[in-house]
Amino acid sequence: MGPCLAIMSERDIKMPANLPPQYFETEKKLKTAKTPQERIEILEELLSLVPKHKGTEKLQALLKTKISKLRSSSQKKPSVAKHGPSHHIEKAGAGQVVLIGPPNAGKSQLIKFLTNAEPEIGDYPFTTHSPYPAMMKYENIQIQLIDTPPITPEYIEIWHTELIKGADAVLFLLDLTDPNPTEVFEILSSKLKEKRIEFIGEGQKVPAETWFFHKKTLIVANKKDAATGEEKISLLRKTVEPRLSLFVVSAAHGDGLEDLKKNIFSLLNILRVYSKVPGKKVDLKDPFTLKRGSSVMDMAKAVHKDFSQNLKYARIWSKNKYQGQKVNRDYLLEDEDIIELLI
Ligand SMILES: Nc1nc2c(ncn2[C@@H]2O[C@H](COP(=O)(O)OP(=O)(O)OP(=O)(O)O)[C@@H](O)[C@H]2O)c(=O)[nH]1
Ligand SMILES: [Mg+2]
Asked: Residue 324: enclosing H or E segment and its boundaries?
């Protein structure tokens, strides 16, 4: 599908028959536009090339909407003027996971499949121009995923690296239809290393040295359905997989995404604990989420400060081990433990 068809298909607009050849020439430039400003300029040029009559009204309206959306997002007031625009996103749910990757890798497509959100998806680069948070349901909890504009070796905006540094985990998307996704990964990660961001695997300990932001990361190789040859995947497995877990998926078809979801949950290193009121049935729909390694006391603090101050002991029901036994405040919790706090 060419870039023009991508624009058309989004709103089911039929291609007007009498667009001049310059229109299509200019539209090709969208593929190489590097900034929202450049996209605005190209879209404005396209608008000026569209003959003005009834048959092109829908196309004109679509171009105008795109321009005004791009313009309003690029004119958002920076919160700290000298640092450029801020795209800080408040954390929500059990953890914040930011999706990053080169243009067109399918970041927005993946967000669309994993959440109820409807981000813009297009087969031209820089479709996404500002970060876009959406909630992914995982069993009985919600995890925040953030779609972001693409990163390129030439330019990574400051707000983008700040967003990565602040997130709980990262999904790094690669495009299996790129000629060499392994090289794309190596180049982009070395660029991010210059910004003090380093990717680590789920089980890896965060090194004591604090100069770097070590981010728990999964590598997602997308467009498995359209990839040609096994070599690209085996090269990724050989070079990237020893360091970071690799998931080969097709975001467009949902292939491999259930497994990915499970691994996003374990990457966050959290556990779910249910609070039970004595004499009542436990509510398994609404767990507390705590960091792995949390104790009964940490749970008490999360429930209410009265519990943490006056806690005598707790009773626990766990998947295989306990059926209401007493445990003390230092007991280390496991995922899906049920706890009755007694004061
Ligand atoms: N064949 C195939 N195409 C896909 C898949 N996932 C995404 N695409 C296509 O790839 C193109 C880019 O998808 P997007 O989700 O917009 O990519 P993106 O990474 O968000 O792109 P930017 O916002 O520009 O960074 C679109 O044409 C999608 O339809 C997939 O699993 N298989
Ligand atoms: Mg996108």
From this structure: strand 323-327
